[in-house]
TrEMBL record:
InterPro entries the UniProt entry points to: AAA+_ATPase (IPR003593), ABC_transporter-like_ATP-bd (IPR003439), ABC_Transporter_VariousFunc (IPR051782), P-loop_NTPase (IPR027417)
SUPFAM superfamilies according to UniProt: P-loop containing nucleoside triphosphate hydrolases
CDD domains (alphabetical): ABC_DR_subfamily_A (cd03230)
Protein name: ABC transporter ATP-binding protein
Signal peptide from the UniProt entry: none
Claim: Transport is one of the keywords in the record: yes
Top-level taxonomic group: Archaea
Matching Gene3D superfamilies: P-loop containing nucleotide triphosphate hydrolases
Molecular function GO terms recorded: ATP binding
Organism name: Halolamina salina
Ranges where the ABC transporter domain occurs: 4-234
Keywords, sorted A to Z: ATP-binding, Nucleotide-binding, Transport
Amino acid sequence: MPAIETTDLTKQYGDTVAVADLDLAVESGSVFGFLGPNGAGKSTTMRMLTGLVRPTRGRATVAGADATDRDALRPRIGYLPETPPLYDHATAYEQLDYAAGLRDLDPERARERAGDLFDRLDLPAEVAAGRIADYSKGMRQKVAYVQAVLHQPEVVFLDEPTSGLDPRAARTLRELIVELADGGTTVFLSTHILPVVEAVADAVGILYDGELVAEGAPAELQRRAETGEARSLEDVFLELTGERADAAPSEGDG
Ligand SMILES: Nc1ncnc2c1ncn2[C@@H]1O[C@H](COP(=O)(O)OP(=O)(O)OP(=O)(O)O)[C@@H](O)[C@H]1O
């Protein structure tokens, strides 16, 4: 069974169709790169899949739970949104104690795991013991990432996870994503940084104007949109989401 499955998943805001009839299947233990231009509907999709926004119609299951059932989702999923929810007055450790408490994690083991991840991401212990209000953007991002994966969820949604990270931390984060998937976690990764997707994604979906215009393994998409030359995922992305003649290459997974 796929870790994420959507059928006709749709969200409308007034006259704006943010996401239109999305049919998606993401394999368990894979990294799925979710791409699309600004305003394509990526965040709206993630909000529906994490139970934060109710679909206008259609349905979705995530880690076996209905995506409208927040109580069932909570222990199974993690979410790093574009603007991470952090308490400025707390220290990183307090923030993560709170997150661990929400998920009934053993406090000591949660601290240990957080400490290990902070080490990997080069967030010094003395910084983690200081108030989040004084953190740089990259430091906040590190804490938010750790918060999203602390409980070892079955499915983790990452919205621009490398945002604000320096090159070393961004590389570590890419490694952590691959390790998550190797350990069986399904990673739903939305980013505009296409080389990251190229490096880590097993499959890619490209959203354009709320619609899925392509889905498949990165290499397969590159072949499908090809004209003979070696093409980057960026070329494919620009072709599919640019001045698309209405005969866009037929998407779907065949
Ligand atoms: N709460 C809302 N109310 C009204 N319209 C919304 C709301 N949230 C999103 N939209 C609209 O839905 C569409 C999709 O937005 P969304 O934020 O999902 O795009 P995105 O692909 O995540 O974009 P970006 O790459 O810029 O983050 C846009 O037209 C946006 O204006």
